[in-house]
Amino acid sequence: MAVPLLIAAVGLQVIGGIQEGNELERQAENEERINQFNQSVAEQQANEEEAAAAERAIIQEREGEKFKSRQRAVAGTTGIETRGSILSVLEDTAVILELDRLNIIREGGVRAGQKRATATNFGFQASAAKGRAKAQSRATVLTAVGTGLSGFGKIADR
Predict the structure, then answer these.
(1) CB-based contacts of 152: which residues, under 8 Å, 6+ apart?
(2) Average pLDDT for residues 34-40, to the nearest whole number?
(3) What range does the domain containing 101 cover?
(4) Is 27 helix (H, G, I), strand (E, B) or coil?
(5) What is the pLDDT of residues 55-73, one digit of tens each?
(6) Spatial CA neighbour of 100 closest among 39, 138, 58, 152
(7) What sign does the CA torsion over 13, 29, 125, 132 have?
(8) pTM for this prediction
(9) pLDDT, greater one: 6 or 37
């Protein structure tokens, strides 16, 4: 009567081990999917950062052109000739406005780069989770076989 109970106990241990292993494998697969989703979101955010920076740069350029036009108009209405110091002011303004526009593009690129680095990190995490899922699957089978063999070995010793 003890042998049938031992067989049942070994069977339950094997089944429990398989179920636990399968659950751990599912968790790793879910983690992989979540990280893949987060990766795609971060990549989309990087693209949006670049597009927004480009749009802000265009707006900056338009506003700069308006400002330079106003400067020239003021200079013209005051009767100042466009040479000498006023020309220097106009040139300085053009340089400053262009630097502002380039800085907007650079800052957008930096933010996009940060988002892309985050996306890459999520990609690495997804790959690691996929590896864990595969390893867990193999470990589940090996553990179940080991438990079964050990249990049946004990039964055979009786």
Answers:
(1) 7, 10
(2) 95
(3) 2-157
(4) helix
(5) 999 999 999 999 999 888 8
(6) 58
(7) positive
(8) 0.70
(9) 37
- Residue given tokens 């013209």 in the structure block: 76
Could you tell me the two tokens for 110? 């930096």
Tokens matching residue 44? 């989309």
Token pair for 139: 């470990």
Assess contact for 3 and 155: CB atoms under 8 A.
yes
> How does DSSP classify residue 82?
S
Taking the C-alpha atoms of residue 65 and residue 90, their distance in angstroms, rounded to an integer, is 11
Short-list 91, 115, 107, 94, CA closest to 57: 107
For the chain, the domain total comes to 1
The size of the chain, in residues, is 158
In the chain the first and final C-alpha atoms are separated, in Å, by 12
The two tokens of residue 132 are 């864990």
The answer to whether residues 10 and 158 touch, using CB atoms and an 8 Å cutoff, is: no
Q: Between the CA of residue 112 and those of 47, 81, 102, what are the distances in Å?
A: 7, 45, 15
